[in-house]
User: What shape does this take?
Amino acid sequence: MTAAPGWYPPPETPRPLLPTDQAVGNPFIWLLACLPFGVGTLMLSWNPEVHAYIASSGYLSIDPTYIFTAAYFAIMIGLILTYGATVVLAVFDYRWLVHRGVVRPFNWAWSFLGGVPYVIGRAVVIHKVAPRRGLWPIAVIVAAWGLYIVAGFAKALPFMQSVFYELGY
Assistant: This one.
């Protein structure tokens, strides 16, 4: 069985290479890659207290109101702002790349899934049109998320120890 003529989409034309002296980085992608550093350092300021009490059911429980401090809400607001800034910076980066002559740059809508998918996809496209360039933002965002994860563990472990201590485990 054969397909009718014109059934298959036309093959995409290859992206033209950028000149070697043309910059592929801009402030938008670097800010986007560095955004998790802000939330990671903000996370280090959160020091929740653990207080046990006897619940109405008669069991020993942890009072959750001591967890919701000003630093906790600052972290939550920081995460929301980071998410919004990621999308905005991706739009500006996409426009910058189009203006610089990149054909079919990585779509900014991927930033709704977070900064990491956008930065990786953008780096792959830039690496195709400008060989051996454009990969450093991946290293920066991986380092930033590494700090974020380490800060999370650094705060979660002592917190869980104090919870177990208060509950008598």
About this structure: Residues 136-166 form the longest helix (31 residues).
